[in-house]
Model the fold of this input.
Amino acid sequence: MINYLKEYIQKNPFGKITFADYIMQALYHPQYGYYMNDKRKIGREGDFITTSNISDIYGRSIAKWFYRKATELDLPFSICEIGAGTGRFAKAFIDEWKMISAKPIQYFILEESPYHRKLQQEELIFDENIKQIASLEEISPFDGLIFSNELFDAFPVHVIENQAGQLQEVMISVKDDLLVESLEPLNNEEIKSFLERSGLKLNNQQRIEIPLQMESMIISMSKTIQRGLVLTVDYGYTNEEWLEPARRNGSLRGYFKHQQINNILERPGEMDITSHIHIDAFIKIGNQLGLKHENTWRQDEFLLAAGILEELQENYDPNPFSDISKRNRAIRSLIIPGGISSSFHVILQQKGV
Done:
C-alpha cells in the first residue's frame, strides 16, 4: 500500500494530504485498506482485542441491561449495532435474549468491513429479525437501542498543533521517497468551528486530533432514532484531560500484533489506527441534536450497575480450564480496578423517552 499512498499524495494538487485523508486510505481503501482486507484483526492472532471479544459475558450483560430498560421505558425490542466486528457480541446478546425473553429481539448490524461482514455471517443465523444493513437510512425512523463498541476511535481524524498561539494543521507529504509530516496554517473552517463549539483551547506546542467524522455519525444517529437509547462504549478524554501534559502529543497511534505503534505512517494498511474520542464534544453535540445525555460511566462501573456480579458463579471449580473458571476470570478482568474496563467510558443518551 505504501507505493499507492505515495502516488496518491503526489497526485494531489498540493502534493500533501491531511491526516484524515491518510487514515481513510490506510483503513478503508477498497483494495488496500486495513479494515477491507481478509487479515484477522481481533483476538490473539490479530492486532488488538476488544472487551466484547474477551467473553460472551459482555454481550449477555448488555442484553440483560437493555431488556430491563426497554421494559421500563416501553421500547420495542430492537437494537442496531454499528461496527459489529466479528459478530461475537451480537451472538452473545442474542443467545442471552432467547433465555430472558419470550419475545424475539430485532437485531440490525451496520458494518463497513467486508471481512467482518463475512465473519458475522459465519457466526450468526440471519433471518427476518436478524439482518445486516448497508446504512442507517434503511431502518429510519428507528425505535430501540443504537449500540457501538470501539466505533468512534477508528474514524479518520485531522491533526492540528498550536505553535506559539497559531493553529497549524499537520499534513503528510512525500520527501526522499518517505512519508513525512509538515505544517501549514489552519484554514479548515469545520475544524475551527469544532474547536469553538467544543470550548477546547490548546496549550502551546500541543497536538490534538479533531474528529469531524464523529460529528457526522452523531448527526446520522440522531436523524435515525425516533424514540430510544444510544449506548456508546469507547475510550476518550474530557477537555480537562486533553490539557494534561501527558496528552501534549495527542492520542493517535497504531496497533500491530498487539504492539503499540506511535508513528502511524508506519505499516499503512497493515495495522489498526485509533485515537481517543472527545467526550465533552460528543455529549455536547448529541444534546444539541436531541440526543439527551443521561449518564457517563467507566465501563467497569457500568457493568457493575448492570448486574454483572450476578453472573459470578460462587461454586469453586479446581479446574482452571473449566467453563465456570473461564467465565469467572472473564468477569473479574472486566471489573477489576485498573483492568481493561478502566480505560473505557460508557455514554448513555436518549431521545423521546
